[in-house]
């Protein structure tokens, strides 16, 4: 609809700007130098090693790059393969809602049963009592996501500890979607579940180079999990894609040699978040500044009671600015009158979009 209407598109979660030319040149170099045949099933050793090193630097633990790190075709594949590796028909998976849309099909296609637990209204933090109440003898998996899409909520150490305590004596595993690991704001730090020695034994950490380096179309990501879990994970990965695009793996391995390249992402997005919330403050929408990811939620229930899908459509068609209604992230499509904006766009586009948002009253 955004394309049809030539609207400023702040809906889908992909960056509107290019990648670092250094990275693009590396891809060109490796394709020309003939790195164009199948990569090893688990990923090229150089990239697995660099990723393990990045994990040590940012999360304080060093995964075994041979047995605990697998390169896959995007976090979506990592999530699907991890769920498939663990879940058997009839077993339950706890999903915290609102949730990214690939979780439910990954569970149901494996014959599993999603059990939804709503995040707290307002700030989208986790209600650990509710999570505890949702656990049954059939619970085999919990699927979590921090920094969170769509809310931007970032887990604290207390959240991580709560999850560890909750599954301590249970045979429950965790799929941790950490694709926005390098995008947190206001001094907050992303805490990978892998950094918790106990949780690390039961967790598949799923990440995305596409999200980190503004190249979502490359569909390249990874999974870090303990040796036994990685062995099961690879059995699935082997028959989904077998291996992941070779020249890009070589390019990323070389690119990751300079830590500044992933550490600087944080400042880059902090500026975008600041610019976007400053402008949003001049509109009639209500919001709390996002603390992570490249999404900003805003509510309009104090202005109008029209449905969130309807307002998103009107904004796209009449104001020419596209956003996403939050009801689509809920299994029961509940409508809390909240919309999501993606601010991973050029500043000029963000400013133009914000300008159009000032006319919101016209469509309510
Ligand atoms: C929370 C979350 N997980 C996973 C993905 C997909 O990552 P990838 O493109 O690496 O498959 C997205 C993309 O929007 C996402 O928002």
Automatic annotation (TrEMBL):
Any Pfam family hit: Aminotran_1_2
UniProt xrefs under Gene3D superfamilies: Aspartate Aminotransferase, domain 1, Type I PLP-dependent aspartate aminotransferase-like (Major domain)
Which cofactors?
Answer: pyridoxal 5'-phosphate
Q: Keywords in UniProt for this one?
A: Aminotransferase, Pyridoxal phosphate, Transferase
Q: Which InterPro entries match?
A: Aminotransferase_I/II_large, Kynurenine-oxoglutarate_AT, PyrdxlP-dep_Trfase, PyrdxlP-dep_Trfase_major, PyrdxlP-dep_Trfase_small
Mark the transmembrane ranges.
Answer: none
> Which residues belong to any copy of the Aminotransferase class I/classII large domain?
8-357
- Statement: the UniProt record of this protein carries the keyword Transferase: yes
Q: Which GO terms describe its molecular function?
A: transaminase activity
NCBIfam families found in the cross-reference section: PRK09082.1
Q: What is this protein called?
A: Pyridoxal phosphate-dependent aminotransferase
